[in-house]
Every structure is written in structure tokens, then in C-alpha cells.
Amino acid sequence: LIKGAAFLRDGVDNEGSMNNMVHPALVTLVMDFFYMPLSVSSAFPKVFSCKVPRVTMCLAATALQAALDKYTQTGIQQDCQFKYGTYSKIFAGYLDMQHQIDKNPRHATKTWEL
Length: 114
Description:
Layout: H1 24-35, H2 40-43, H3 45-48, H4 54-74, H5 84-103, H6 105-112
């Protein structure tokens, strides 16, 4: 899952185009953490009311990678430290990747459909 960031993708569409940043695990994490009752979205409705902010997707992808990193090291599910020094570069990489996706109208539209 980690190799090639496969945990961020969900196969390809009918035209053979990659479904980026829409893996069910990523979508579920975002929806559960940011959009359930009493979540961040209720505290900041203007930010979260229309579309999932891109930075939110990138933060969730980084958190998911942190959990998968720990799991691949130990083979068991456990809490892990989410440290700036370790994951800030990864987060920045996901932001860059998201900017590349957004430059392609077809991919940008598909990701916004979340």
C-alpha cells in the first residue's frame, strides 16, 4: 500500500484514468474525522460546508501514511506519534501532488467529486 502511494488511489475509471486521492480508506477517514457530528466541520462550517478543502485531503493522506508506516514496521495496529519533523515533508509532497492533479482538469474534477 505504501509503495507508490497506492493507499491514495482507487483503481482507474472507465477510460483508464487513475482515480487519485479517492481511496475508500482515505475518503472514510476524511468523512469520519472532519464531517461527523461534533467534528471540525461543525466548528468551522464556512470552511467545510461546500467541498472538502484540498489541504484536508493532504493532511488525512499524511495521517494515513503515518499509521501505515507504523503498521509496516510492527505488523500490528498501534498508536503512533505524528511528528512534524518526520511528516512535514510528506505533507508538502502530498500538497505538491494535489497541485499537479488540480492542473489536469479531468483529474481535478474527479477528485472534487468526493
